[in-house]
Description:
The complex is a heterodimer. By secondary structure, chain A is an alpha/beta fold. Among the domains of chain A are: 71 residues, no CATH class; 83 residues, no CATH class. Helices cover 34% and strands 23% of the residues of chain A. The two termini of chain A are 36 Å apart. In chain B, the strands form two sheets. In chain B, strands 6-7-8-3-9-10-12-11 form an eight-stranded mixed β-sheet, with helices on both faces. The model of chain B has no long low-confidence stretch (mean pLDDT 90). Chain B is of the alpha/beta class. In chain B, β4 and β5 form a beta hairpin. The chains are: A alpha/beta, B alpha/beta.
Amino acid sequence: MKNYTPDNRGPILEIKDLKVYFDTDEGLIKAVDGIDLKIMKGTTLGLVGESGCGKSITCLSILRLIPSPPGIIAGGEIIYKGRNLLKLSERDMEDIRGNEISMIFQEPMTSLNPVFTIGDQIKEAIILHQKKGYSEAQGLTVQILDKVGIPSPEIRIKNYPHQMSGGMKQRIMIAMAISCTPEILIADEPTTALDVTIQAQILDLIQSLQDELGMSILIVTHNLGVVANIATHVAIMYASKIVEYGSVEEIFENPKHPYTLGLFTSIPIIGEKKENLYVIPGNVPNPLAFPNGCKFWPRCLFATEICKVHEPPIEEIKEDHKVACHFKLWINKYVWKEKAV
Amino acid sequence: MNTMNHTLIEVKDLKKYFPITRGILSRVINWVKAVDNISFHIRSGETLGLVGESGCGKTTVSRVILRLIEPTAGDVYFEGEDVFKLRGDRLRKFRKDMQIIFQDPYSSLNPRLSVGSIIAEGIGAHKIARGKVKREIVENLLEDVGLSASFYNRYPHEFSGGQRQRIAIARALSLNPKLIICDEPVSALDVSIQAQILNLLTKLKREFQLSYLFITHDLSVVEHVSDRIATMYMGEISEIADTKEFYSNPLHPYTIALLSANPVPDPRKRRKGILLKGDLPSSIDPPPGCRFHTRCPVAEEKCRIEWPVLREIFHGHMVRCHLV
């Protein structure tokens, strides 16, 4: 489906050593603690992880939507077209937000304003960013609604969100996000609240819009099926860190980090029915009291003394594949199988 | 007595219509046909998976079977007894035999009750045990579901989603039921927690000789847990078959579409199947003929006019489609 050759056009967005902390009454929560990510032009990066690992916070910091206080961007850079987004003035950021970088949220039901028609909500961004007049914006809105597959858009433009189904609302959210033909689309769990058949429609829509507009996409999800279907690259996040990164083929074919391996073996797969699913032992650590050393060691089958003391940096093991594990060179799915089964 | 494989529950031509009313006299102007002529059975020790999109009526089916809402028409027989005719003591006994686990463990546990009281509530209501004995039963249940007995006096807010779902499971087990209805029990949970809960349900099924009606929209989960699977579309069953048969030889176009829409976690097997167009039509005025024809990729003239019946194609494999 994709005909982009990844990597040859350079990164459109580069996150370097980003740190986002929250100063709460109970203590300092390190939600994102020194992550590096690159989104190549025209490609799709899937950010995978469980609730609370910091994936949504990463997205929000790109758009500088972290509420402060209690949020603090404690360090790092987010480079977009040669500029550090974290250093921009609020005025400059407004020009980027919704215009060059836009976002789709998880729950289409709650992220639309119930008291405005959907037409008004889409027009708002067009009038603001593209400096169009009302009637011109109206025409563009109809075109965009048509593009995202809303039937009879001239009529639907006057509808309120409650008059639409969940799938339709998500299409509206997408319409809003692409209304200014952004360079980067951030999609935070865009299909989690939807049915499978609607999910398939929405993923196809996102993909065809990407082919048409040449956007780069950052998609956050916990569904490995969705990632395998839509992403060109994957980053696996665990407890505020990226633990593994690579091309989607490489990560699914040759996963290295014990957490990635655990995730992959814990999901039921059609046609591979087994009596028991693999369960990653223990629980996600409390963000107020992350373990020393590698954050995954208390749950890891391969942990040794060094893991408890020294946090492994994320390092390249071959082109387009990075792993944060002391034993990255010899852990693989075969070694894993022997140990886990 | 042969306890395995006898029919535990049989649902016959079950209907549930909800009235739509208007005006101060609440005149009934129309009906939502949430469940329309559903028939199936579950054998003892078996898991029946019920799959369908939101709004297809799968949750309504479970509520009617439990007698949480009254049916419009139809019968449900539980171990040969007509459930809708039960009154008084017999009804109380029946309620013990059938329990439910809900989707969202954040809203299904009373935040003002301790974990112990939540699980013990049914035991007290059915006068099974009191005092120390009751506490002992609850502590055992907590351990059965993989929690610690010391959680007895703690409150739901202290627990994570997965742990809460375990509490809900312990509550469902407390009355020693024969059938547990699992209404999307893992949909709200993270991947790694989902595996824990699915394994727990498998283990408990064996230990307590349970049967499950497992409602979900996730086709990979349902394959993992079910012996047989039924798909529902707009209040009707469109296909029902053994799990193996269901995945190897799906016949109804809706089943095929659902299977092809399910994203497989393998980048080499990217989805390129049929895409169902549009949303579910309104169940107030279901389309004439086959209810699926408005979205069906292979619909013919006949499908628009004539309503298909559920026919048995092979042994135990039933399909509602003219074209099969």
